[in-house]
């Protein structure tokens, strides 16, 4: 059982991925489109959206830049 101060990393990464996907889709971008914008491969974006990677701060800055949003928008979500 998690204490009030502990974070379930798996759940947080899944929620982060869902948020990235939600924003990407709202901008009518495919995973490939976003990957090209941030100089990553499509599989990297897929793994991010699936919650399979723990992205670095720089990676998230690049993704936000590719989505044309401030980094705070990614974390402006009740689930995160």
From TrEMBL:
One of its GO terms (molecular function) is DNA binding. Residues 20-74 form the HTH cro/C1-type domain. It holds the Pfam family HTH_3. PROSITE patterns: HTH_CROC1. It comes from Aequorivita sublithincola (strain DSM 14238 / LMG 21431 / ACAM 643 / 9-3). This is Putative transcriptional regulator. It comes from the Bacteria.
């Amino acid at each position: 059982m998690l204490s009030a101060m502990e974070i379930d990393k798996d759940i947080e990464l899944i929620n982060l991925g869902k948020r990235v996907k939600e924003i990407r889709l709202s901008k009518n971008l495919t995973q490939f489109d976003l990957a090209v914008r941030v100089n990553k491969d499509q599989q990297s974006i897929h793994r991010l959206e699936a919650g399979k990677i723990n992205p670095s701060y720089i990676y998230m800055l690049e993704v936000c830049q590719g989505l044309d949003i401030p980094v705070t928008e990614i974390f402006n979500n009740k689930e995160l």
